[in-house]
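Suppose a colleague, Dr. K., hands you the sequence of a protein chain of 394 amino acids and asks what its three-dimensional shape might be. Before reaching for any lab equipment, you can write down a predicted structure in token form. Begin with the sequence itself:
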Amino acid sequence: MKTVTETAPVVTGRRSLPLSVLAVAAATFSVVTTEMLPVGLLTSLSDGLHVSDGTAGLTVTLPGLVAALAALLLPVAARRADRRAVLCGLMLLLGAVNLLSALAPSFAVLLGARIVVGLCIGGVWAVAASLAVRLVRTESVGRATAVIFSGIAVASVLGVPAGTFLGELAGWRWAFAAVAVLGVAVAVLLAAVLPPLPPTEPVRLGVFPELIRMPRLRIGLIAVALLVVGHFTAYTYVRPVLERVPDLGAGLVSALLLVYGVAGIAGNFLGGSLAARDPRRALLLISAALGGVMLLLVPVGGSLAVSVLLLIAWGLSYGAVSVSSQNWVMAAAPGAREAASALFAGVFNVAIAVGALTGGRVADGIGVTEVLLVGGGLAVVALGVVAVAGNGEE
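The predicted structure, expressed as tokens, is then:
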């Protein structure tokens, strides 16, 4: 495979992470908040635009599928563009389409805007996921990667709930207007603090088949696909699963899901710290923990205390998935980090959609509790896939 010549990392003399890393984390926070915002606004959105809840759900499904494709194609289309300019442009576009969403006179216009949101999501992730190595010294790459990926968990804990609250208070259109302002503000911040980031080498379509033929990278992608499909198969229906636990009312379920989100933030940094030293060990532990948690929730569903502990463990485990698998990808393809990150982002987004679809089919066809068995089973398969990687060397 053709080797990519990396430019020297842009560093500062300080031990603390530079503001540029936090700005990239703000970008990931913005796209994830935008992606998941309709989940909290589904009822008011469907009522306001006179569509069913199922139809309104397309505002989440379609952006995810577009993001998977955009993650692969945008780095190819922007092959010679400075990555700072690409990120700033995507965030400005995100602000514009969120404003269009806020003003949408019909569901068709909203859905069109959300499709463009998918382009922004995939593009931001394809570029941002590989930037840590170019922004900090080698010894800080693991921590910087964890900070960049913390945007996922923080969006779930703070961004989406805040947007939902604003939507309930002032209407769903104001929630989209708020994330529009956020997108523009992040674009300004990125322009101010990011150094010039010329492409290390133009990404071409032909590089993706070459990457897939790399054994270690292929194993990592298969493992993350299994973990993410398994997680979303089960987690999409975590609320009805928890509501079956005795003495667990609807109010406590919401509080527990918040605790789950906080655990996810902690898991992101714990996983990032471990994966920076040993990506294979990190994925082994995560796979075993996720599989064990989901499978154990089936027989212990009658115990409130044990269910709560397992839910917290679930948050810790899944919070570490994205940052740990990204570390694996970077280690597996050190000469083509951006292309490998784009492939990773594409696989991740497809896995989210497949997981949610699988969970729906299992829940409707067999039962809600069985989604835990399927999700846990897929995590166990991921454990086996990582285990056969040996010591992670090609």
